[in-house]
Structures are given as structure tokens and as C-alpha cells.
Write a structure and sequence with these properties.
Layout (H helix, E strand, L loop, with lengths): L1 H8 L5 E5 L2 E4 L2 H10 L7 H17 L5 E6 L4 H16 L14 E3 L20 E5 L17 E8 L5 E10 L9 E6 L15 H15 L3 E4 L3 E2 L15 E5 L17 H24 L5 H16 L5 H31 L16 H9 L1 H27 L5 E6 L8 H5 L8 E5 L9 E5 L4 H6 L3 H10 L5 E4 L7 E6 L8 E4 L2 H15 L2 E4 L9 H7 L4 E4 L22 E4 L8 H6 L1 H8 L7 H21 L10 H14 L4 E5 L36 H5 L2 H7 L14
Parallel strand pairs: 3-7, 8-9, 8-21, 9-12, 12-15, 15-18, 19-20, 20-21
Antiparallel strand pairs: 1-2, 4-5, 5-6, 6-7, 10-11, 13-14, 13-16, 16-17
Length: 731
């Protein structure tokens, strides 16, 4: 009982439910290991008793929770007035700084002054408790503060009559994240897979801008959603998965369009000759993929681009560009310095920081400081790369807006980072040592999953005022019209697996979901960006409701939308949820053509991934497809007939338009009949995950220029009409 009580006080589960009505206990060894990763020693009976006594005493005497959230309606007259008043106060210095006279009018006394806007978390405070709020700008708002506070992450101070005092993080956030302005459709694409006539062997940010400009202007698309563009861990070979990055805080310069760097044009002499030669080699890589069937080779692309960037880096920046670069360095501050330092050290000592000399494993050590100074040229090079990539991301976003996109570029946030990468090195205290994120056993995977990504410590996040999380979000939202959150359920809880244990020997650890959501909504509000949560798979009760309440759109994939609580039959379009991105597939699933033809079953059979006999899988798959085609036909969505593959795919997207979904995503490979998934879960080297270009129904790679001229693509997009439907229209 003592261990269970201690675990509960720290948000660690001692049982989990893989299915409704089923409870599986978690081993004591797992609970002890997870508590240890949270800094709580329960390894012996004596240690357990001591830890429990301390935790219960802290809970009993706690005056404030670690984080207090105040949700405030957006757009209300009171809200606008409060923001204006607070902004004026901060601007003119009239507001008093918290910490001065406690009763000078800048304090609100709990229980004495009624305030309907007060956060619910403060309802149990003792009468007479004095509360003071220090805003992000270091100033306090006059009078009872709740309705006057600006949006932001503030410090809340409490002094109780019994002498107790406490400090807490106060997050004042809009009640909901920004919503799309109206219904829209757009493309979903893995950027590396989209090669143009100007690519150096893989899709780049120039291609993203071209796709956005063309699809927005010519097809009425409202958005383009891409895979995570996070910085990868260098290696031989580099892990091609965009969901296992070195850093989520900075993008990968492999996505740069070299010719779009302004200084590129000023190269002369031997530098110009070498750049021209490198561009020709990039063209050879491109043609190998598009014309000769080669896989995308990220490492080969980066080898060429890195040499080109080294040359361009030697060309001096003009005064205006130099000033802009310096501003970027100052704005990014310690985060960028750490990232660039890690990149420089990785060049010298290898990409796994835990194998570096001991003095370099701590980013704040004197040894690291000396190494940073010694490697200053390389540190500057990597900081410059981050700036260039940021500028091209901004250009892609601007192109999307100028093309009339209502949402724009949808960026993707991976669920975690590589344990040997830049973020884990620079922010080591925020990650749980010896733990990995994964998923428990379920009906689809009896062995569970271990993703090899260290989880954030919820206690450290709370103690820091969620600074690492806030910085991550604000960076990703700089140039995003929307942000997709991979495995959005991780805002509520994550499955932690102790190092060396199988995924079955993990347990759930809870996060302060109210605080995590408030910070997310706040940063999205500041950026004016939509938030999309990937909520596929097993989702605990209440999570989707909480996300919907805060304006976070979900993800609905056609083949999974069935009446699971009733008949199990395909869900009719009117019964789909409005707050979602509706799509036919994702990067981890078969393309629509493969699903309709059964090709995905044959592929999984060839790779030994089936858990049932082939004929049984074929029969079940055919029955599923027949049910959906029956529904599509019954709704009159198959005017071309049921035997034509292109007609069936168009019918699928007609169906998605019949739903009330705010956004409808077209998997770009669907537009040309591609039959291959970009990633096949459960495989490593058996399948070319994350290395395939977009291809047609015959497996022939298709360039961006060929896509733009494809009759099949244009026939599919005719389903959506010449322009996006008005906000209240329904197809």
C-alpha cells in the first residue's frame, strides 16, 4: 500500500487498462525504477517510508499547486479591456512590482474579495490568504488581478495567515486555441519525398514553397502539412526517421535550398566552379531517384550540401544581413548557443554525447565552455545554418499566405528526441534518465512498443514554469499556420519503459494536462496558429473531450471511423466530429490505392508481418473495403462505378467532404495512385522507411512539376471544386 500511495502522489500508475474492463497490475520493480527517475528513492523499505512521509507532509502543507491555470474567453470586451489595461501598465511602468508592500492595493485577498474569474485551484485557500501576481514583464496589476491579467506565464505568490507562503506558476490562457477561418482542404506530404527539377536528391524548403504557392493559387488549397523538419542526429547512416530527431527546437539544414541563399550568387572563381560542380552532383542524385529508381539518400544529399554551405559561409554578409543574423542570435540566445555547440562537439567527438569526454557531457561545465571557445568558428557555422533554415521556413510560410491559404504550412512536432542528441544534452535535467517513451501492450501489439525517446520529467517542467516546453512551442510556431502534435495523448500521460526492460514492463506517468494544454493554447494564440492533435489509437476517456474543449482539432482517418460502440459498421459522414482533420490515410498507413486493392496485405505478407494466415487477412480486408464501398455507393458517391480505382479514390474524398470536418487532408501520393506507405511500422531494414519518393500507380517516381501537370491529380482535386467552400458551406 505504501508504494502505491507514493506512486499516486507522484503521478505514477500501478495498473493500466489495455481494454475496457481489463486491469493489468504494474510490477513493483517498474514502479520503483520510475520513481527513481523522478528523484524519489523507494528502493528499500526504509527509503520508501521516508519518501512517503516527505511526500504526504508536502501535500498536506502545500499552499499552492505547482501550476495554476486561468482560462479566459477570447474576444470578450472584458478580455480586450484587460489586455489593453495591462499592456498600458507594463508600457508606462505604472504597475507595481510584486514583492513590495503586500497590502498596497496590488494584492487580492482570497475569501475576502469576490472575484468570479479567480482560478478554481485557489478555492480551498485559507481565508485571508494574500495573493500577489508578478507578470512576465516583472510587473503587478492593480487590484484583484484575475480579470486584469494579460495572457502569459506569470508568478503567483501566496502568504497565508498561519505563516505559510508559496510560489506557483500562473498560466493565463485563452479558453480555446485559434480555429481555422472556414472549411479547407490541403495536401499532406513527407517533404523529403517531394523532389522537383531543382532538388538535390530530396525535397527541400524551396519545394515546399513551390507546392504551397501552386496548390494555394491553382487548387484553392488552404494548407500543406509536412513531416517534422527537426534536426537529425548525424551518423553513418543517419536515422532517416523524422520522428527521432536530435533536436526539436531547431530545423535540419539538410532541407535548405542552397541556391536561394543570397550569398550563393556572389561566389566567384574557384568557389563558383566548385558550387556549380556540387549542384551538378545534386542533379545526379535527383535523377537517380526520379529516373533510375534509387532510394532517397539523405546522407549523400547532406554531404553535398554541407560542402556547398562551407563555401557560402566564407562569403561575407552585407550590413543588413549581418544585422539580421545578429538579431537572430540574440533572440535565440542560450538555446541556439547550446544547439550549435552540440553540433560542433558532435563533429569532433561523434554524435552520442554520453560517449564524449566526461567534462563535455555537461553543457555548463568549464570544459564545455573552453571547447566552445576553441570551436567558435564551427559554433558560428551551425548557428548560421539555423538562421538560414529559419529564413527559408519564413519564406515558405509567406508564400503560403500570399497564395491565399487560410491556414498555411502545418508543421509537425515529434513526440520526443534521441537520447544522444542535442536537446537531451542541453536540457538533460528536464529528461528522465534511464527511461524511454513507448506504448503498452494492446490488441494490436501484444509486445508493446519502445520508441527509444527519453520522456520529459513532469516535476522539472512544473518547477521551471514549463520553460523548456514553452520555448519548444514558440520556436515551432514562428512560421507555422498550424502545428500538429504527434501522439497528443502525451500531454496527459506517457508510457515510461525502464532501460533494459521490455515495453511490457512499463507504466504510465501523468503530466499536468491542464498546464500543458494551457501553455499550448497560449503559444498558439500568440502565433495565431491552429493546433491539431494526432489522437489515433487507444485514447483514455476524457482526453478527446478536453482537447475539443480547448479548441485542439483531432485526427480522423476514414478506415478507423466506425460505430465501435454499436454496430461496428462504417460511420456515416454526418456522425463524424467537426473538430478534426479528416483524411484517408497517414504516413504510417497504406495509401488509399493500396487499401482499396488489398496491396498492403500482400506487402505485409511478403515481409512476414501478418499475425493471421494470408487468406484470413485477405478475406477480412476485402470485407472491410466492401463495407466502405457499400456506404459510398449508397450515398451516391460512386458515379464512375465501383470497378475503377481512380473513381473509388475520388469517392473516398467526396465522402470526407460530406463530413463536418473543419479540414480535409489529401495524402499527396493518393493524387497519383502511389501504392507504397512511407513508413511500415514493425520494420527496420526490411523496408525502405522514410526513403521513398512520391510515385505513381506503377511505382514510377513523380516530380513536383509532373504532379502539377498530372491529369489524375487534377481529376481528384475537382472533387473539391475550384476554391475552398465558404465557412458555413457543406458539399
Amino acid at each position: 500500500m505504501g508504494l502505491a500511495r507514493l506512486a499516486a502522489l507522484h503521478g505514477v500508475a500501478t495498473a493500466y487498462a489495455p481494454a475496457e474492463g481489463v486491469s493489468v497490475p504494474v510490477s513493483d520493480a517498474t514502479v520503483v525504477a520510475v520513481l527513481g527517475a523522478l528523484g524519489v528513492d523507494a528502493s528499500t523499505p526504509q527509503a520508501l517510508r521516508g519518501a512517503l512521509d516527505r511526500a504526504e507532509s508536502a501535500a498536506a502543507h502545500r499552499l499552492l499547486p505547482p501550476t495554476v491555470v486561468l482560462w479566459r474567453e477570447t474576444g470578450s470586451a472584458a478580455g480586450r479591456e484587460a489586455d489593453d489595461r495591462a499592456a498600458r501598465a507594463v508600457h508606462d511602468g505604472a504597475a507595481r512590482v510584486a514583492g513590495r508592500e503586500a497590502h498596497d492595493g496590488a494584492a487580492s485577498v482570497a475569501g475576502r474579495e469576490a472575484d468570479d474569474d479567480a482560478p478554481a485551484a485557489l478555492a480551498e485557500l485559507p481565508a485571508g490568504t494574500v495573493l500577489r501576481v508578478e507578470t512576465e514583464e516583472g510587473a503587478a496589476v492593480e487590484g484583484p488581478p484575475w480579470g486584469r491579467l494579460p495572457y502569459g506565464v506569470h508568478r503567483l505568490h501566496a502568504e497565508a495567515p498561519d505563516g505559510r507562503s508559496a510560489r506557483s506558476t500562473l498560466v493565463v490562457a485563452p479558453a480555446r486555441a485559434p480555429r481555422p477561418g472556414g472549411r479547407s482542404h490541403g495536401f499532406l506530404v513527407q517533404l523529403y519525398s517531394l523532389l522537383s527539377a531543382r532538388s538535390w536528391g530530396m525535397g527541400d524548403l524551396g519545394d515546399l514553397a513551390e507546392l504551397a504557392g501552386w496548390s494555394g493559387r491553382s487548387l484553392g488549397a488552404g494548407f500543406v502539412q509536412v513531416n517534422p523538419l527537426h534536426a537529425a542526429v548525424p551518423g553513418t547512416p543517419t536515422d532517416p526517421s523524422p520522428y527521432r530527431p536530435s533536436s526539436r527546437r531547431f530545423p535540419d539544414p539538410v532541407h535548405l535550398r542552397i541556391e536561394d541563399i543570397p550569398e550563393y550568387a556572389y561566389a566567384a572563381g574557384r568557389d563558383r566552379e566548385r558550387l556549380d560542380a556540387l549542384r551538378e552532383k545534386g542533379a545526379v542524385l535527383r535523377e537517380s531517384v526520379l529516373r533510375k529508381g534509387a532510394l532517397i539518400d539523405r546522407d549523400a544529399v547532406w554531404t553535398l550540401k554541407r560542402e556547398a554551405l562551407e563555401i557560402v559561409h566564407r562569403i561575407p554578409l552585407g550590413p543588413g544581413r549581418r544585422a539580421a543574423y545578429c538579431d537572430f542570435l540574440a533572440e535565440q540566445g542560450q538555446a541556439l548557443e547550446d544547439h550549435a555547440t552540440w553540433c560542433a562537439l558532435a563533429e569532433a567527438h561523434g554524435p552520442e554525447w554520453d560517449s564524449w569526454p566526461a567534462e563535455l557531457r555537461d553543457p555548463r561545465s568549464p570544459g564545455t565552455d573552453r571547447a566552445r571557445r576553441e570551436l567558435m568558428d564551427r559554433v558560428d557555422f551551425h548557428g548560421w545554418l539555423a538562421w538560414l533554415t529559419d529564413r527559408q521556413l519564413a519564406a515558405a510560410g509567406q508564400t503560403a499566405r500570399e497564395a491565399g491559404m487560410g491556414v498555411g504550412i502545418v508543421h509537425d512536432l515529434a513526440v520526443g528526441v534521441h537520447p544522444g542528441g542535442a536537446d537531451a544534452w542541453a536540457q538533460g535535467e528536464a529528461f528522465a534518465a534511464g527511461m524511454s517513451v513507448g506504448a503498452p501492450p494492446d490488441a494490436f501489439n501484444a509486445r508493446g512498443q519502445d520508441w527509444g525517446l527519453p520522456p520529459w520529467r513532469p516535476d522539472v517542467l512544473a518547477a521551471s514554469g514549463y520553460a523548456p516546453y514553452r520555448g519548444l512551442l514558440s520556436g515551432l510556431l514562428r512560421h507555422a499556420g498550424a502545428l500538429r502534435i504527434d501522439h497528443v495523448m502525451g500531454l496527459f500521460r506517457l508510457w515510461w519503459v525502464p532501460e533494459g526492460s521490455p515495453p511490457t514492463e512499463g507504466t504510465y506517468v501523468r503530466y499536468d494536462a491542464e498546464a500543458m494544454l494551457a501553455v499550448l493554447v497560449l503559444e498558439a494564440h500568440r502565433a495565431g496558429a491552429v493546433v491539431i492533435g494526432e489522437d489515433l489509437g487507444t485514447v483514455e476517456p476524457g482526453v478527446r473531450e478536453a482537447l475539443t474543449r480547448r479548441g485542439v482539432l483531432g485526427t480522423s482517418v476514414l478506415w478507423f471511423e466506425r460505430d465501435w460502440a454499436g454496430t461496428g459498421r462504417p460511420l456515416e459522414p454526418a456522425r463524424w466530429r467537426e473538430g478534426c482533420v479528416a483524411t484517408a490515410t497517414t504516413h504510417d498507413l497504406p495509401s488509399t490505392a493500396a487499401r482499396l486493392t488489398g496491396d498492403h496485405v500482400e506487402l505485409r505478407h511478403r515481409l512476414g508481418l501478418l499475425t493471421r494466415p494470408l487468406e484470413q487477412e485477405r478475406t477480412q480486408d476485402s470485407a472491410d473495403v466492401a463495407e466502405w464501398l457499400g456506404l459510398l455507393g449508397g450515398l451516391g458517391l460512386l458515379p464512375e462505378g465501383t470497378g475503377d480505382e481512380e473513381g473509388r479514390i475520388r469517392a473516398v474524398y467526396r465522402f470526407l467532404l460530406r463530413t463536418p470536418a473543419r479540414m480535409v487532408g489529401v495524402w499527396l501520393p493518393d493524387a497519383v495512385g502511389d501504392r507504397r506507405p512511407q513508413n511500415l511500422p514493425g520494420t527496420w531494414d526490411q523496408y525502405p522507411n522514410w526513403r521513398l519518393p512520391v510515385a505513381d500507380a506503377d511505382g514510377r517516381p513523380v516530380s513536383l512539376e509532373e504532379l502539377a501537370a498530372s491529369p489524375r491529380l487534377h481529376a481528384l482535386l475537382e472533387v473539391f471544386g475550384p476554391r475552398t467552400a465558404p465557412p458555413d458551406a457543406r458539399p
